[in-house]
Amino acid sequence: MLLLAGATATGKARSEGAETHFPHLFTPETETTTHYWFSACYPKAMGPFGAELAQKTVAGVEVPFTNEDLPMLEQQQRSMSTSDLWSLKPVLLGGDASAVRARRVLEKMIREEIAQRSSVA
């Protein structure tokens, strides 16, 4: 998943602002565990400053992720176990829209892959 964060001065076009890419990579390990990697990317033209900024950005989110997000996600996994998310009838908030879209895209890709495997077999 690629998150884009940016800033543009009020009244200016988005193209006049700055944008930073934050890749999030997920690799399933078991039915209930996943490896998760996060990075911050800055233009190579920023040289050593960009590399240092990327390291500081990642270090800045590491503590809240480890101490806040990770324990919540682990408890959520224990509570949900292997239940299908939609069967739990989750309450969705406006801020969940992107995650719901991403989930639906993945579900569609999985259905298509299963159908393709079935037609080959």
Helix and strand topology:
Elements: E1 2-7, E2 18-28, E3 34-38, H1 47-80, H2 97-120
Antiparallel strand pairs: 1-2, 2-3
Detailed description of the structure:
This protein has 121 residues and is an alpha+beta fold. The chain is 48% helix and 18% strand. It starts with a strand and ends with a helix. The mean pLDDT is 91.
Write down the overall mean pLDDT: 91
Per DSSP, the total helix count is 2
Largest sheet: spatial strand order: 1-2-3
What Rg do the Cα atoms give?
Answer: 19 Å
Number of strands: 3
The helix/strand class is alpha+beta
Q: Strand-and-helix sequence, N→C?
A: EEEHH
Described by the principal axes of the CA atoms, the overall outline is extended
Short description:
With 121 residues, this protein is an alpha+beta fold. It contains two helices and three strands; from the N terminus they run βββαα.
Q: Any key phrases for this structure?
A:
single chain, 121 residues, alpha+beta, three-stranded antiparallel sheet, 2 helices, 3 strands, extended
